[in-house]
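[audit] Reproducing an earlier prediction to check determinism. Same input, same settings, fresh worker. If the tokens differ from the archived copy the diff job will pick it up downstream; this log only records the rerun itself.
[audit] input (446 residues):
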Amino acid sequence: MTRLSTQPTLPLPPGRLGLPAIGESIQYLQDPEGFIAKRQQRYGNIFKTHLFSRPTITLIGADAARFLFANDGQRLEMTNTPSFEVLLGAKSIGVQIGSVHQILRRQLLQAFQPRALENYALTMTEVTHHYLQKWEQIETLTWYDELKKYTLDIACRLFVGVSTTADEQLEKVYETWSSGLLSIPVRFPGSKFDRAVRAREQLLTQFDRLIDQRQQQSTETQDVLSILLVAKDESGKALSREDIKDNILGMLVAGHETLTSALTSLCLLLAQHPAVFKAVRAEQAQLEYPTSFTQDTLKQMTYLEQVLKEVLRILPPVVRSGSRKVLESCEFDGYLIPQGWDVYYQIPETHRDKSIYTQPEQFDPDRFSLKRSEDKQKAFSHIPFGGGIRECLGKEFAKLEMKLFAALLVRNYEWELLPGQNLERIVLPFSRPRDGLKVKFSRQGM
């Protein structure tokens, strides 16, 4: 059992801090997966390094995740890069801490309750059919780029009631904003960060117009914006306009970028494993191709659920958690976690623990069957959505969209990977194939 301690005699984790100031940041950015793999092999599941001007401890494994989640908000506190803090906004849940974070989280979760999700499924179904038909006509496509358009369109429709197919400028402004999230936070005319800040201002102006419209005239639209406009906390206090705007913006990136990564991985793995594809399609046929995606209907898609869990295990969209600053020195696995340092956990390596998963490098959805349930052997061994007080707000939204998309995709369509493409993965900021997954897409039997 992990004990907490402030004993100064505890050793620091093994590892090295690299060069003064820059530490090992260059090596990490050149090859994040290789960087972690080499150090895990040499030092084990806990090691020290120095990344992005901060002394840092990397944690791997279910026990490490449990430690971090248990201490999050107490001895550990979420930190963000300066560019993230500016571009997300001061009111975004991504930068909030303590009781303010918890109160805001409960208010925002009102937009992701089961009744709201069932309403969202209607729009998701309509939009998915539109894009599948579009891809059928295109025939040859780079799927990652197309899936970015698809997930952003769904997010914009369900969050603010605007379709990017009808408002192409919204898509362009959003992409300018999101591309600056990992930029150097130095603002001068024409810099990536400057363009992103200006794009943020444009997006917030559009949100202001939408809020004004909702407040001036009643609407039957039940999107995230309409729900947040009436959401109240336990004391009856409503969200401010700034709260709503900053958090809608944060939801757009969270509900779009990670889903694009996950869906791209799903399409790649199904193409590489035809037996799994056939089994997913057979389950849909057995269920007689339901057209209404209610909670009861989705629960019957048990094999598809296993497939999606395995996709998120073997190719998680996010490879590392957000950094936490150590507020109070503590102990994990016999090592000192010093006050003032940063700490984070690695998701892919946690998902490849050989003591939990049989042949973890293999794509095997049956590992999540009731009979095997490999992830149930130890808590926090399957953490694609994080955990604890900062578990992904839109977890159920993401699972709904993935399941609905996959069900409609496999029923009538087929695709094959085009030869000569590079499927090596870029993992920052979100995991994806280097060439974007080039495929030939067609309707079944054509």
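[audit] rerun output stored. Observation attached for the diff report: Residues 94 and 158 are 20 Å apart (CA to CA).
[audit] end
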